[in-house]
Amino acid sequence: MSEQSLAKAPLQLPCSVVIISAKADNRQGAMTATAMYISQTPPLLVVSISKTFATYQLIEKSKGFAINVVADTQLDLSRQFGSVHGYEVDKFQEFGISTESASRIGAPLISGCFANLECQVKSSLWEVEGNHAVYVAEVLAFKMNEKLKPLVWLNSQYFEVGAQCRI
Ligand SMILES: Cc1cc2nc3c(=O)[nH]c(=O)nc-3n(C[C@H](O)[C@H](O)[C@H](O)COP(=O)(O)O)c2cc1C
Questions:
Q1: What atom of ligand 1 comes closest to residue 158's alpha carbon?
Q2: Do the domain assignments include residue 72?
Q3: 3 Cα to the center of ligand 1, angstroms
Q4: What is the extent of the structural domain holding 125?
Q5: CA-CA distance, 91 to 111, in Å (whole number)?
Q6: Could you tell me how many helices (H) and strands (E) the chain has, helices first?
Q7: What's the structural domain count of the chain?
Q8: Mutation pick for ligand 1 pocket among 53, 58, 62, 68 (CB with most ligand atoms within 8 Å)
Q9: 0.90 cut: is pTM over it?
Q10: Residue at 10 is within a domain
Q11: Residue 142 belongs to a domain with what CATH number?
């Protein structure tokens, strides 16, 4: 298969849509990303962040971040945080984002999300092809809103979560 067709392979995985927020040295930032479940006990998740992005610098300094799970009412936020770089603007100010303080980490929590997970970096992997750092993070605290639904990212498009399967 050609390199061009193989590049479509990773897009075939349904992914979570999250906004990763971080804060260090009085600077805050956030970017759209995807996070994956590793284990419940301990509660571990994994994210991969391009080393060229502003949020990467903040995570490297603070060793913590919040995973804000985007609700299907927040499609605009996902687009906004995923299209602009924090080196250029303060996305929170630019897009008028409401935030709340976290209980265990310095990063701001984005209001109105399906869930907010406060995470501490447990280990990192930098030698990944394609310029990304991979972070395994432990959840220290979380909250969720059961009235909302999360979004799904598949083949570069957004989807709503559908009905639960009945066996
Ligand atoms: C749905 C979606 C998922 C994304 N997932 C990731 C990801 O997992 N890792 C990553 O490095 N960038 C990802 N991006 C791209 C970043 O969000 C984007 O480049 C952002 O502007 C980086 O911001 P920053 O430079 O302020 O950190 C994603 C973008 C979208 C729209």
A1: 1
A2: yes
A3: 22
A4: 16-165
A5: 14
A6: 4, 12
A7: 1
A8: 53
A9: yes
A10: no
A11: 2.30.110.10
